[in-house]
From TrEMBL:
Keyword check for Nuclease: no
Name of the protein described by the UniProt record: ParB/RepB/Spo0J family partition protein
Pfam families in the cross-refs: HTH_ParB, ParB_C, ParB_N
A GO term from the CC aspect: nucleoid
Keyword field: Chromosome partition, DNA-binding
Protein location: Cytoplasm, Nucleoid
GO molecular function, one term: DNA binding
Amino acid sequence: MAGAKMGLGGGLSNLFGSDTSDLMEESLDNGTKNLPLAKIEPNPDQPRKVFDQVSLDELAESIRLHGVITPITVRKGEKDGYYQIIAGERRWRAARQAGLEDIPAMVLEAEEDEVMELALIENLQRQDLNPIEEAEGYERLMKQFGLTQEQVAKRVVKSRSAVANALRLLALPTEVRTMVSEGELSGGHARAVLAVNEADKRIEAARQMVGLSVRQSEALAKRMNKKPVEKPEQSPEVSVDYIAELEKELEGALGRKISIQQGKHSGQLTLEYYGAEDLERLSEALRNLRV
């Protein structure tokens, strides 16, 4: 909980500056007050789309025992007496599940675009978003608020490379993005899928990666990128049986392994040698050979 509180503070200061006291409805008690849960509504544009029920059950049980330690953040809603959540929908859901009637909340005066940016930043600073939600959050910050990758990285206190790697996941096919969102594949698996060069093979790659480690998935991607070795075409004039018989005949005559590969217009004959002395004898014989 303490970590979430620090993340929220970073989000507030990143968006509104270091001094946020003038945005709070009440200045006493750190600007928080208890609000009826029935008078609080979620933000329909909130970045988080998936709420894991097991995790929600655990949080609800913790709230039953200890209460809501970190206040949610809200603003006044369009309906009189109602509030809209800026950050903390998961705590709000768990509090309702725990049977609470009210919840501690920090009330801010914020414009619509400020609410959206703050909600995005607060969620992106947390650790429990799935990789697709995280990537979509970064994309919305860039598109909706005209931010660069560098600016997004500063707001969510992450490196630019971390933001760039997250955004790459949005290039995944829809089916693979769903697999990542639902936890079948991790972000590491998803990046391994992106390493498959041929886009039309990525869905099949993702299906094969379910249950594999990230390292195994990366190895699978490398194998899928390897092009099959093309065997030289057999000359239509020379049958396979004839080549095989010729190899046997030469092996008997020369006392060494012979390999013949026949192409359409040319071929290759390979002779094995056994040690330095044998190589010298073979070399001398080839020097005297006249074809």
